[in-house]
Specification:
The protein has 182 residues and is α+β, with helices and mostly antiparallel strands. It contains six helices and six strands. The chain folds into two domains: 102 residues, Arc Repressor Mutant, subunit A, CATH 1.10.10; 65 residues, no CATH class. Strands 1-3-2 form a three-stranded antiparallel β-sheet. A three-stranded antiparallel β-sheet has the order 4-5-6. α1 crosses α4, α1 crosses α5 and α2 crosses α3.
Length: 182
């Protein structure tokens, strides 16, 4: 027996969030946004069900279906989702719509960076650390840039990873301007 989540207003709120964020979001990012504020008073499982139902009705679509990890798949609002939202967005209280718009303006770039500017480190056999810094292309499952660095110790590796989100765009721009764009 399939459980169907029926609160239409909650589904409209998720569509509204996707529209106002203006970037595709992973399922985890959608859940993080939904659970951090009081716009939707729903459980984790309800949110998963809403996303599933929005996918089934083609109101949202996976942007990068070829992602190796399910968690890397990003979702965007479809034309049908925008059309539905344009007819029924008034069902979302004005105060909630304003909060979502303000949240999107203040946090869009943070979510974009968290989804596209990735970093990780691992220990090498010699005791040093391998640091992998990556910028993912948002529309396809591939890296625009990947840097592999060797760090002398764990704290240096952690530091490099933490600086990456703030400096990735500038580094990419510098490399592109100096090597690709003549």
């Amino acid at each position: 027996m399939k459980i169907v989540y029926n609160d239409i207003v909650d589904k409209l709120k998720v569509l509204f969030i996707l529209e106002k964020m203006e970037i595709p979001l992973t399922k985890n990012s959608i859940i993080e946004i939904v659970s951090r504020d009081t716009w939707l008073n729903i459980t984790y499982m309800d949110c998963i069900e809403i996303i599933s139902q929005l996918l089934e009705t083609n109101f949202i679509f996976p942007v990068d279906e070829g992602a190796i990890n399910q968690e890397d798949i990003k979702y965007a609002i479809s034309y049908a989702g925008r059309e539905c939202l344009s007819h029924f967005y008034q069902r979302i209280p004005t105060s909630v719509r304003e909060e979502i718009v303000n949240f999107a303006k203040e946090n869009r770039m943070t979510f974009k960076k968290n989804q596209e500017y990735l970093s990780e480190y691992s220990k090498n056999p010699d005791g040093s650390y391998k640091v992998v810094l990556r910028i993912k292309e948002p529309l396809v499952n591939m890296s625009l840039l990947e840097l592999n660095l060797k760090a002398p110790n764990k704290s240096t590796a952690i530091s490099a990873c933490s600086k990456w989100k703030q400096k990735a765009a500038n580094i990419f721009e510098f490399l592109y301007d100096n090597f690709i764009d003549n």
